Queue: 3 jobs
Job 1
Amino acid sequence: MTPVDDAVVVVDFGAQYSRLIARRVREAHVFSEIVPSTISASELAAKRPKGIILSGGPKSVYETPAPTLDPAVYDLGIPILGICYGAQLVALQLGGRVERTGRGEYGRTELALVSSSPLFADWPTTAPVWMSHGDAMTEVPPGFDLLAKSEGSPVAAFGDAQRRIYGVQFHPEVVHTTRGSELIAKFAHEVCGVPASWTHVSIIEAGVDAVRAQVGSDRVLCALSGGVDSAVAAALVHKAIGGQLTCVFVDTGLMRAGEAEQVEETFRRQFHIDLVHVKAADRFFEALAGILDPEEKRKRIGELFIRIFEEVAVELAAGAAGPRFLVQGTLYPDVIESGTGDAASIKSHHNVGGLPADLKFELVEPLRLLFRDEVRAIGEELGLPAEIVWRHPFPGPGLAVRITGEVTRERVGIVRAADTIVVDEVRKAGLYGELWQAFAVLPATRTVGVMGDGRTYAYPIVIRAVTSDDAMTADWARLPYDLVERMASRIIGEVEGVNRVALDVTSKPPGTIEWE
């Protein structure tokens, strides 16, 4: 999938909520893309956006250094909405005043409207909003109108209707601002003039067209992992090119229980897609022997995956031209976390940063611009079964990144058995749909225990369960204690080699969802 027309670009100034702003724009059925604050006016113009949103950020506009915006952006004639830091930057760069008043505002704040604006149409004269700022705007730029104020913000919102440039001190993207999503939608639809055309059907249609344009009449391989991302990517590409697609499921020995059977059932028997099942567990365990570093694990797994696909391509060629395209279920958060552009690299995703430099395939990534909730929605639209569409995300490197230290057959067997129990108990408790992920982790340590009349020295298992909207941020799930007790009792009683169970209560940030 390629960037679409009628986009609203979010310029990221390091805000924790930049991804949330982009999601709110998409919820208004308008495509959004996140770009770094270092982008030039010419680079921004080349994207031909219909609107620009400047995010908040952790810095003060008076800090040195502090992120700034190419001043030529204001002369592009593209509507702009600044949020928090972004609003202060607009005010400062266009001649307004930002001061350190000594009175910051944090949390729920009462906003008082001063004059009318398309952004605040149908708002009451006062409304609760969410603030988080130390500096305050005290004077609007020349030619701008004061739109709203609060107790600690003499200028809480301002705008120039003729230039279509606005700024708000509060955060409309968070749920605590009760009409914030409505404000973002009004900016996109009424100020920018973008229609609500980014729908599940339009995403599929655009994806189909993009795949056909990229691959033409060539044959294509698709890497299936059993997870929702690769499944939806396969279904979308199959809709586009039909029999030109061959799916490859590489059984690495690092999959969840029942993974291979479910893939066979869905894609071979239900969708009638050509499926090659490669049993390669021995090769993966050999490649991972003695490897302790998590990044090295990911890269070895990624490289071996590609080598196997190359072998399959040669076999399929049978003397003719083999497939030269490879489909992967890369998502937008994968791209961001892998450090593309100016984003800091958190970890190399198996299908972004873990690929070999001498890749012989041209990648087809039809989901590259999508968040997972969008992927699930189009998966349903494409007719994938609910048990795949709503299955918890599973990392490309499989159980290898849920084992710290060396990956062996024994340790994979332990974590797989424990993981099966965790998921089973979560389903029985009726909580599976409420959680983003729930799984077991096997640390690289052993602990002393007492079982029966004897001393044990065995592995602990850590239960990891989180809630999230898009995996960019996550909170640890407050599981009922009786559920945790059932999990722990079953794991210790049923999984050989385990004598202790712990619960991970770390959010993201500071931790990542997966342990490696």
Job 2
Amino acid sequence: MADNAEMEGRPGSIWNHRIVRFLVPTLVLGITLLPILRAQLPPGADLAVHLARVFALNNLAHDADLSRFYSLNWEIYPNLAFDLLVWPLVQIVPLYMAGKIFVISSLLMMVAGVALIRRHYYGRVGYIPLLAVLVAYSAPVAIGLTNYYFGIGLAVLGTALWLQSENWLWHRRLFAMGVFSLVLFFSHLLVFCLFGLTLVLLRGQAFYKNRNMDLKKDGVLAGQFVIPAVLLTLIPSPTHGTETVFGPMIARLEAIVSPVLYFNNFDVVAGLCLIFLILWLALTRRLTIVSPMKFTVLFFIGLGLVMPVAILGIWLTHVRIPLLASLLLLATMKIDLPERGMRYLLVAVCLVIGLLKLEKVDRLIAACDIKKIDFIRSLDGMPRGARILPVIEDSAVTGDCLAGGYWHIPALAVIEKSVFYPQMFVTKWPIELKPDYRQFSQKKPRPVSPGVLRGNIEAIGEAKWNRAIAEKWRSEFDYLVWLHPGTKPQRLPENIREIKSGSFYTFYAIDRATR
């Protein structure tokens, strides 16, 4: 997959044949998407909650059970890509299929953006954009940061649009980029900021090199962000807190390998191998970055390595920026390997790592998919409109579904049975809890710790929420959904009775006589 005359540029080379240039990307992308296509539900730890929210948006007007708990709350919110795209899709296809289409579209946009930037700088696409499949299943995808990785795909496409439109009439370019920036603003606020920073860095590097102002270019650069900047002042105050945490040193390792990290041990090894390979290529001058983008790419690589785990209440920021940095690197790097053996070795290494990673990702997605389907089937006997309270055993072992995956699987009950689920993402989305249930809203949604049910409000979780649960769980909820992956429920509260259990969960009915 290296850019070189032997494989890509020499006339008559098999790699230059039109059919080969169509078949190879199609085959690589098709194989890459197989884990998503084979699964019944879209992958990602948080996806169940996002799907449940879209289900509520789509059915709230005519679902009496849902309307008891939730209401619409349309304000000027960013981070709405999933809601605004999947909601119309569910009018055409089933909800779970719509979620899979969203994830697949996000991954394809990343590849397309890399390809378009390469075409601008090198005059052709080549095969290097296919290396983007190595970062297709990254930490943001595993966690389920849907709006973020969709926005990253848009941001890379937007960077390509900015470069390609350099010679457009200024008013045409301003209109196109203004519309794009507005779309990106509503897709994800952090990505919108990173996109703006990307363009500023590009313009700054050009100014440093040429030492001249270009009022039209600078006017377009600033003008495209005017409307989003005004909208930014109208956003409701955040409710997720202002906590900033740098995190332990292990978080630096997570950040370094996060573009290929789907949270299994192989990904750590694969990520480190790829990093050492890139460093070796760079130090031996076999890998170079196109000059106009060099500072921008290196800036984002450095920023990704020092990002805190949480900034102003926004968690997992340390695994977000490295994905953008890796895509920009793929879009702008050139690999020069005169030795034929080295070229084939590089292709073989990338192929082996890619296939092994894909096999392990497929296994993880399939295992978690089985658990989700098992949970859905267990809901057959549950009455519609029930109020469920998820509980997570303190000694639970997460594994294939990640911690957040198990936390949010109960959200599928909203889709299947229109239940009340207190961990619904309702603090900055167009769905809010009815007044009677707002006391159960959380800044950082998490199932309740068993200790809270026994009156220990100092257990894991937010103190205010723990207090509300400790005082009212018997009267305000109908069922406990006890999550215990890798272990068993321990120290159960009194006056609950088991009604159904599965591989990682047990349903308990709360005895009405004690309410």
Job 3
Amino acid sequence: MEHTEAARETPIAPVRSPPNRSLWIALAVATLGCLWPLWAVDMLPIVDLPQHLATVRILRDLHTPGWGMDAYYQLDLARTQYLGWYALAVLLSHVMAIETAAKVLLSAYVFALPLAVFVYLRAHRRDPTWAIFAVPLALNDSLWMGFCNYVTAIPVLFLWLAATQAALDAPSRRRWVLLAFLPIAVYFLHAQALLHGVLLVFLTVLVHPNGLRTRIGLRTLAHVVPALLLFAGWALGSTILASQSGWAATRAGHNEPSSALLYWPWPVRFSRLPDSLTDLYHDHMDQQIFAGLLLLAVGGVLYGVLDERGRSLPAPAIQRRFAAPEWAALLTLVLYFAAPTRYKWIYAINARVVPILAVLLVAMCARVWVPRRGMLLIPGVVLAVALGLLHADRFALFNLEAKPARALLQTLPQGQRGVGILFNPTSVVTSNAPFLHFAQYGVVDRGGMADFSFANYPQSPVVFTPPGPPNLPVRFEKHPERFTMRDHGWWYDWYLVRDYGPEVRMPLFLDGPDQVDGGERRGLWQLFRRKTPRTQ
């Protein structure tokens, strides 16, 4: 028995593919192609990005004279766990503009994902050439929705999984230290990524020869304990576990009254699966490029299988060990169909796992070693660059819609308080709602405060100073027609409106017509100001 146990804990030497300069060149060119749209324009059609930028501005300049934000906000770092992205952004903002800092972090994510997938494939003894597919997968729907913290956690998650595999193969003190750090890093980026990672790590240990029945497996699994303790401490003190009555008593509960788990109907879950990976444009051009990637993957697998040199190693022990990515993909697919779509303030819960699922499918394809790398690298680079050029072209059109709003907000005095009333938050260019949080650019550029704000919700490290602004109507950001001057508008100094036509005063200010000026219009945007600004 002792002999069998020792045999199971024998370190497994990884299979290394010979270095290939063409792979690194291809990854560099493809990554630069996908980074181009992030830097080609001033403003990006990322839905939640204005909220993140405003949060960084508050964290950086809360007590800076002239910005006038300390009258409206205060810090509460204990109520959220994803501080990592904000901490990095604030640090960078001391040497560059806030928006530039955000673009640097988003670029780091796009750059890191294919490298993390490369490491993951090497750890599982698979063909690293397939990492070229991870480059365009970085430009996914979770990014365009503005889940900046979450997508930044994805490369760290795959490095964590790779480190787990390496520690099981050849344990060392250095790897134990790395394993203790990576889940904590994921925790401070996003809790959902942490929980998903814990399940995938358990699966990796379970299917490995040095698995749960060995000291190596148990020691490897123990590294998740510190991160789980951090998560438990946060969850117990957060409103995420609050009862319906406790939740309803919060500002967030006023805007999102239900604490029930909400699910997409089964037909919708099936139909929305590809859209959860990418569906940014009305004409679905980005999906067509991703369809090209799928055809390339199928072609690469068939070519490798038909060529004897492309077959995976057939040893039974290695086959069992190679099963970790397949089991991880299956588990992630189950999570997509089993997880809720919404819970309290958290939305698109199940859809967020789809980019991870896509990367795991790439890892499954990488089980087949393609003998001629150029068969994957050349079309992979072409498709990645084509995707980048598509986004750059469409983003330029989006900026024509967005810049008038920014120009209006930059005319405001510093330190005032305002609200965005978006009757039309959509774009003629993108299929999401990129203007939903545009009023937050008022905070980014001129300080003060703006609603609708993430400060209402537990995911933000800043909160409104009590008593705060008036509670806006339920689901106000989706139902601006519920806004009235008598109940809500009396508190604000300015009102950024986006509508469908040239006349917007509508019934919006009927119960306070003498309090607001005639408004300044630029395109579909109109900025109204209180004739006599309220004192703080």
